[in-house]
Design a protein that fits this description.
The protein is mainly beta and 161 residues long. The protein has one domain (2-157). The chain is built from 1 helix and 10 strands, in the order αββββββββββ. The protein has one helix at 2-20; strands spanning 36-42, 45-46, 49-60, 66-73, 79-81, 88-99, 106-114, 121-129, 132-140, 147-149. It has a 5-stranded mixed sheet with strand order 5-1-8-9-10, with no helix packed on it. Strands 2, 3, 4, 6 and 7 form a 5-stranded antiparallel sheet that branches.
Length: 161
């Protein structure tokens, strides 16, 4: 029952983010130590539609409870940011498409969880092209060419420790 409630909570939050748009949601704080970069590729849409990508960041505790840290609109590429070291962080990429003249709005979310490590760098590629969206990430080790893929992990799949 608890996993269902948690999933409903995340879904409700995603709907809230989409409904609120730019109306006062907390911006993810700019940290001086940048250990991550997000590169974005999107179709700008057409005269009658608009596509937008955002990332919502959460800190996830051992009980799999998510604390909202803030959001960033993914307009400028590349976007450098600092992820907290040692915490489990959920990045929820929200892809929204809106149409004008009475059309409908739609959104899709891709979630990735990771625990950033000291000395490592994180590189993410986010795309929404021709109605196809995706997000990938890699962890790059310090001083070596080793690269490890960041898995797509959803909050609803989190296992409490």
């Amino acid at each position: 029952m608890v996993p269902i409630l948690r999933a409903l909570g995340v879904l409700a939050y995603a709907c809230l983010v989409l409904a609120a748009g730019c109306s006062g949601l907390k911006t993810y704080p700019d940290a001086p130590a940048k250990n991550a970069v997000i590169r974005i590729k999107t179709d700008s849409g057409s005269f009658l539609s608009r596509t937008r990508a955002d990332v919502d960041l959460f800190k996830v505790n051992a009980a799999c409870e998510a604390q909202y840290l803030g959001s960033l609109r993914l307009e400028d590429s590349p976007l450098e940011l600092g992820l907290p070291i040692g915490d489990t962080i959920l990045l929820a990429y929200v892809f929204s498409r809106s149409t004008f003249l009475g059309g409908r709005d739609s959104a899709s979310v891709i979630e990735m969880m990771l625990a950033p490590r000291k000395g490592y760098r994180y590189e993410f590629e986010v795309s929404y092209l021709k109605n196809t969206y995706g997000a990938t990430g890699v962890e790059v080790g310090p001083g070596r060419p080793s690269r490890r893929e960041v898995e797509h992990r959803r909050l609803k799949d989190c296992v409490a420790k």
